[in-house]
Amino acid sequence: MAESILTKLGDGRFDAHSAGSHPTWRINPFALDVLWRRGYRTDALASKSWNEFSRFDAPGLDFVIAVCDKAAAEPQPYWPGRPITITWTIPSPDAVQGTDGEVRAVFESVCDQIEAALRAFVALPLEALDANATRALLAEIARA
Q: Which domain holds residue 85?
């Protein structure tokens, strides 16, 4: 969800990528539905491993923001270029069980949390901040 949301909210400022520590190689249909209903593009999304971004030929990353609470507990790979890394421990909705309505409500809530955090992120004056100030502000977003 974060890739699609940041792509739209960033309005060209960011080249967003989403990846996970244990990709399922499919995107959850509830995530696609929530994004689509909110006007986010989903056609270019794909399930990817975060190892794709740790290779020597990976695209350069300025930021690595782990948004999943499960990924936060795992050792992350080496990221070329030494990007600023931060964890926003947002619950992973994939394991939720229940009726379609209950599961959709969890995906909506998680999408709300990701949107709020990314709105705060894109509002930061990143060009005017050094790495330490940026890291501190990203940590504040995580606590909000």
A: 2-143
Nearest Cα neighbor of 125 from 117, 137, 143 is 137
- CATH code of residue 87: 3.40.50.2300
Residues 6 or more apart from 79 whose CB is under 8 A from it?
A: 53, 54, 61, 64, 85
Cβ pair 58, 52 in contact under 8 A: yes
Residue 52 has pLDDT above 80, yes or no: yes
Query: Percent of the chain, pLDDT > 70?
Result: 99
The pTM of this model reads 0.92
Total domain count, the chain: 1
